[in-house]
Amino acid sequence: MSPPAPPSHAFARAGALREEYAATDWAAGPLGDPVGWSPALRASLDLIWGTRFAATLLWGPELVLLYNEAYVELMGDKHPALGRRCDEVFPEAMDAIGPLLAQVRAGGEATWSQDVLLPLQRAGYVEDCWFTWSYSAVLGPDGEVEGIVDIAVETTAQVLARRRSHLVAQLLATLEDAVDEEDVVARTRATLESGQDLGEVTLPLGAAPGSGLTLETGGDPSRGVLCRVEVPRRHAGTPPRHLEGRLSPRLPLDGAYTEFLRTVAAGVGAALDSVAAAESQRAISEALQRSLLTQPQPGHALEVAVRYQPASQQARVGGDWYDCYPLPDGAVTVMVGDVAGHDQTAAAAMGQLRNLARGVAYSADVWLPSQVLQDLDLAMEGLGMEVVATAVVAVLEEQGPDGQLVHWANAGHPPPVLGRADGGVRLLDVEAGLLLGLDPSIHRADHRLELAPGDLLLLYTDGLVERRGADLDDGLTWLVETVTAHAHLGPEELCDVLLRESLTHDDDQVLLAVRARGLG
């Protein structure tokens, strides 16, 4: 026999849920026949039916569920659940909400929870959801807690939007100074996998298997669906890639999720375009730089090796240079210099200074290094070259079987290294003169040494010995120790060893090593 229907007006304010309230067998449950419901229960029902916020009423010790229209959307496929116990309907959320409900029942004190994660199985899988809600006690005539009103707002969309925006911002900031394609790939993987929206991230070469977002179904659902999205590219030198990763198995693939994936792919594409453009520029710049650095002309009495190594993480163009050429009287000039700066302006100034130095030393028949530097300073001032540079100039005169007599001068440059044939190595650390481009009237000093057969003179720029965060003296100590350990090597081999053991460098590196040959 069917239970008697409640009065037709009992659920009049339930709106779209009116028929479901009327069809529920309340008499068979903990609340009993609606005819006997307490005034507090009826008033509370009127309250939740009258608000457009999602609201539910948890009544009695069993916390039986009664709710309004707006609450149905939050429940998903858990609806209908009228008249059922809360712990039966929301078992996966009880660890989070159970203590709060107990708190209200015990003391009547209201709770407030903002943007709290609640796992809900409301669409066939356990879904990460976030809510802001408040539990308030409903008191009976005797002051006892008869039920609890829950007013809730789902904030999942807002929480995910903030989380994803933060991750995208973090990714873009991380990729801003990526140095090459491999660096972009590594930073992308590390950043995205630190979040919760994409796992097992890769950036394979080649186009995505389809336009837009494609999904690979099947496999273990707990790992998430494998997705692929094309990485847009604008630079001709950027190879095609696509973003691949696993979606969160606890989130729906909605429009916001799809837009997040497209934004990530666009950011990665922009970073790949940037490094491709920079690599193209570096290639052009390096070709320009090397075209300005001609091969040395040492003569038969000298063995000379030169090296130019561009900075490892900057545009491959700057103000470092070397030179080696004979003078009209048969002496040989060697020079290493460094214009301040690391761009095309520095490279252009370097080319001018190098040619000026050649002209001063050769055409004007000036061979004392100090005079070369002083005349170079005067020419820089007269031509309006507003640059600052360091340089070491040495003139080597052949002394037959005794080797070479070396005259040299220093304009603010790191000290040359002298390696003797017997293995002794030291810095020529006399006081360096003033930098070029500051005061052309300054007096510059010449120094002299004998380079016996087998002895080696090493000139270099500061990129070889300077390291970010390290003391220059440490770099100079390393240089002397390395030259000492490889004193048996010729100039070519020694230059290779120095560049190899200097590892990553933040500045261009120029080396010029010259060894005297004995002539009878």
Describe the fold and architecture.
The protein has 12 helices and 19 strands. It has helices at residues 18-23, 39-49, 69-75, 86-89, 94-107, 156-175, 181-193, 255-292, 344-362, 369-382, 472-485, 491-501, and strands at residues 54-59, 64-67, 113-121, 126-139, 145-154, 198-202, 213-216, 226-230, 242-247, 302-309, 320-326, 332-339, 389-398, 404-411, 417-419, 425-427, 447-451, 456-460, 509-516. Strands 2-1-5-4-3 form a 5-stranded antiparallel β-sheet, with helices on both faces. A 5-stranded antiparallel β-sheet has the order 10-19-18-15-16, with helices on one face. It is rod-shaped and about 125 Å long. Residues 1-6 have low confidence and may be disordered.
Q: What structural class is derived from the secondary structure elements? A: alpha+beta
Query: What proportion strand?
Result: 15-25%
Rg, Cα atoms, Å: 40 Å
Helix content: 25-40%
What spatial order of strands do you see in the largest sheet?
2-1-5-4-3
Q: Which shape, going by the Cα principal axes?
A: rod-shaped
Tell how many strands the DSSP assignment holds: 19
| Termini separation | 129 Å
SS field, number of helical segments? 12
**Which spans have pLDDT < 50 for at least 5 consecutive residues?**
1-6
User: What about the largest sheet?
Assistant: 5 strands, antiparallel
Mean pLDDT: 90
How do the strands and helices of this protein lay out in sequence?
Layout: H1 18-23, H2 39-49, E1 54-59, E2 64-67, H3 69-75, H4 86-89, H5 94-107, E3 113-121, E4 126-139, E5 145-154, H6 156-175, H7 181-193, E6 198-202, E7 213-216, E8 226-230, E9 242-247, H8 255-292, E10 302-309, E11 320-326, E12 332-339, H9 344-362, H10 369-382, E13 389-398, E14 404-411, E15 417-419, E16 425-427, E17 447-451, E18 456-460, H11 472-485, H12 491-501, E19 509-516
Antiparallel strand pairs: 1-2, 1-5, 3-4, 4-5, 6-9, 7-8, 8-9, 10-19, 11-12, 12-13, 13-14, 14-17, 15-16, 15-18, 18-19
Helix pairs in contact: 6-7, 6-8, 7-8, 9-10
